[in-house]
């Protein structure tokens, strides 16, 4: 297909500036690059509720011509079959999953977009691409490899590990974590669930081998109220009748409710309703039908063999939706959704309300609908043109961009058929909530911290805690005399809560604050606020007091983050949750985020889960075989073998990837020297350079004397940087899995299997060189034990043999070097995603990583230090702020910047 070029939508100068800022962020992260592509898709800026803009690319025209990737998603019924035999479950959640998948160079131009300043294209998988789910599924399948269907499964970005025993689960977790670490896939730890005996997965609850619909899937119908009007009762019967072929004796069960008739047109015009009170027999019929509709007689586990369908509807009260599958015998429901409207949502246009119902359904059932083709049925005809109109109102435009990644067809159906969603929308059960896409997104500022904050930190915390304790009794008395909700300013000693100031102090501060004074004087204009006992409150559930700017906010932040009783230095989300239940101010999310990011104790003690800074600098491959070898010990291995071996010593030729291994009893220098003499030099000759780590078994005087005698060069890998000696590290991880698979039940014969694993490794093609290590080492193809060989042996002299062999080996070496370089470039490209070379200046304040942590409670980062000299772009001299005689030479990968604090 010829390239598609879409003109940019008109934009104001302010919007152009936003586009520039967003593209700069993407450039810095390495997620986009400059482009000369003839393709172009338009940028869309969608205004959020906080008046900021969301940066999106409209890929509709590109998706329309894209050949759909037929890569299959796992069958959900087969997934549940596997999970039903397990007892322990762990769920992993990826952090910015799509952006962890690099985009091939030939496909990048198709993702291009333009600003007024430049033309760009993505280097990673962007959101909104139609084949995104299939691509991500393929990547995850490849990463999990042989663990899939054994103890790990992935449905797009939902990964689950399952085991029968806790010991097995720990082993499986370790294996999967190692696999993800090697693949450099990042997880979002806050959303991971570890070693649960009950879990919700793909909309179903799994426990003790039983798989049932998740309560959230049937909540929308199961908790509907009893019909209060004849019209509601009639609609419920008609909705249930849609599935009557799956409900035994439907007519007999529903008979008590059939006497109710719908509201007539005349009654509707006059706003009249027939109010009813159900008898015990009618209530029994209502509850019995609901039970059938929410059990497996009607409700089914999802099955990928049958197409999915979503039905939605909206009324004045709320929204309703049903997820179904189209079986040969009729539509089977999978899940129900019912939600009330907020007061603001009730004022939306019908199109916005109907569209919102679909958006909520996508959010709720994303796991079922992502990556497949499904049908959306609606009784609102205008929505059938949702993907065809150029631009619509801002709210629907934002929702439309959200559904770009889904593949569906819109189908109009009359309201007389759309019965169950209609009933659910008129009897909503879930509480109303604001549109989740309109919540404020936090953007943190990364600068230096004022040194006064560092010096006074401990004293500030101590002072705040002391003041809180003094005010406790006074505050309890003050609050007991007010009518504030219990969750706002209530203080309970049993719950270890403190209230940092009295009600009178807060009222006085509100009256002196310009923002709150304006609201107090014009309270009728501000629907989100109320006055209760002279105190300005934010209308939440329950209402909470508004906190004026200044010391009040600072004190609250200190109390609910720094103090042992109320904060304990927990992270952003937990701190936000505590504070928002008790107080409100407009910038509280931003302020809390800044306060925690600039917290020195948190920075010093919290584990860092982000990638190490700095891009990769690959090591150039050696010129030939046996020019550079790497050596290492692997172990101790549990259990000890029957021969008493606890370690494996391993030597790898860096170019050919040929491996030599030996099971040994210890990891001493004498053992390493014996291995070099007896198993390496006497059989293969002397290598030119030997690369080892800095272990004492390799740095000993005896080892250095031996290497000096044989004329080799001894190279050491960088301390605390095992990637330098990555050849042996990678083989070790491969070797462990293979040996374990071949060993006996007790794994005590692992050293018997070592030679077989090593031989098969050496006689198999290597992924980096695309060559067989054995061929590169010996100049001939390996003969395997079961290979058919010619019984006739020809004894002849080939005068050109040596020359041919040299040419053959030279060709293999050159091909191997080229393939290694290509592989390094691909790996570097992937490694460098979301990494940048950090920039530090003289005078910046930093913390320095503690490299020798012995105990769990040891400090992880020391400081603060100030940068006083730049040696290279990545190497600095730093000076301790308090201990002025303490200097260090450090590199960027051990530095942690300190952020400026607002309060």
Automatic annotation (TrEMBL):
Gene3D superfamilies: 1.10.340.70, 3.30.70.270, HIV Type 1 Reverse Transcriptase, subunit A, domain 1, Ribonuclease H-like superfamily/Ribonuclease H. SUPFAM superfamilies: DNA/RNA polymerases (SSF56672), Ribonuclease H-like (SSF53098). One of its GO terms (molecular function) is nucleic acid binding. The keyword Kinase does not apply. Residues 27-206 form the Reverse transcriptase domain. Keywords: Endonuclease, Hydrolase, Nuclease, Nucleotidyltransferase, RNA-directed DNA polymerase, Transferase. Residues 428-447 are annotated as: Disordered. Residues 617-781 form the Integrase catalytic domain. The keyword Coiled coil does not apply. It holds the Pfam family Integrase_H2C2. One of its GO terms (biological process) is DNA integration. This is Uncharacterized protein. The lineage of its organism: Eukaryota, Metazoa, Spiralia, Gnathifera, Rotifera.
